[in-house]
Amino acid sequence: MQKQMVPARGLAQSGRHHLPKQRILNPAEADGLLVIRQIITRLLGRARKPGQTLYFGVPAPAFGVNDDKFTFHETTLRECLRELGYEPKSISEGLAVVYGELGDSNFTGIGVSCGGGMCNVCLAYLSVPVISFSVAKGRRLHRLQFRLRHPRSGH
Question: Domain segments of the chain: what residues?
Answer without folding.
Answer: 17-149
